[in-house]
Amino acid sequence: MIQPQIARPEVTRHILKAFDLHASKRLGQNFLINPSVVKAIVSTAEIEEGDRVLEIGPGIGTLTQGLAEAGANVTAVEMDKKLPAVLAETLKGYDNVRIVQGDILKTNIPELMGDEPYKVVANLPYYITTPIIMTLLEKRLPITRIVTMVQREVADRMTARPGGKDYGSLSVAVQYYTEPELSLDVPPTSFYPSPAVDSAVMDCVVREKPPVAVRDERMFFLVVRASFAQRRKTLGNAIQGVGITREMAHAALERAGIDPQRRGETLTLDEFARLADAI
Hints:
Elements: H1 9-18, E1 31-32, H2 35-44, E2 52-56, H3 62-69, E3 73-78, H4 83-90, E4 97-101, H5 109-113, E5 118-123, H6 129-138, E6 143-151, H7 152-159, H8 169-177, E7 178-186, E8 191-192, E9 199-206, H9 217-229, H10 235-238, H11 246-256, H12 269-278
Parallel strand pairs: 2-3, 2-5, 3-4, 5-6
Antiparallel strand pairs: 1-8, 6-9, 7-9
Helix pairs in contact: 2-3, 6-8, 9-12, 11-12
C-alpha cells in the first residue's frame, strides 16, 4: 500500500482537518469510512489490472484508492473545485489516476474516455443519482458495467418488478439497458457524516442489446413516461400524454392486447414494447 488507507475513519478525519474541509450538503457529500465496503465495491466491479474506469465524485479519494490499488486506470471527475488539489496529495504516487474537475452532466464523456470499453464506479451524490445514471445509459457509451452506491430506496426502484409501488420509469429504463442487481446493503455508519438514509451498492451489467425489440426507442420511453406520469390514471387515459387522442389510445391498446383499464405500474417491458409499437 503506497498511502494510508483513506477509508479508515481516523485517516478520513485527519485529511478533512488538514485541508479544512467540511462535507457539503449542497453537493451531497458523505465520505465513505468503511474499508470493507470499498473492498466490496471493487470486488463487485470485478476490477482487473489495466481496466479502464470512470469514477464520478471521487471526494477525497477513498474509492479511487481502492480502484487504483486493484490495478485500474482511473479517470475521476470531481465537481467540487476545492478537491482536485486535495486529491493530488491523498493520491500522490498513484500514476494510474487522472483527476478531472467538472460536472459529469456537462462533461463531454466520449472526448474524455474515448471509444474503448470502460466501467463506471461511483459513490454518487444521492440528490442527483437518477440524472447521472440515465445520462450514462441514454448516451450509449461503451460502458460495460456500472457499479454505484445509491440510496437504498433508489436501489429498490432500479430492481422493482411490475405491480409494486417501487416500479416506475427508472425501473423500466435501468432494466431495458442493463441487468441490475443489488450487491450490498450499506448502513449509515459507513459514512462521515452519517446520512439519514440506508444505502446500497448496485451492480448494473450493461446489456449488449435490450431484452425487448422496439420499432422506435423514443416512442417506447415516451409511452413509459406517460404511463407513470400520473400513476392513478388508467392506461386508456395516461398514454394520451404522448400526443394522441383517446380513440387512438384505446385502438393502440386493443392492437397490443392490453386492457385500457390497467395502470402503467402493471406492465412488463414486453407489454410496454408492444404498446409503443402499436402506437
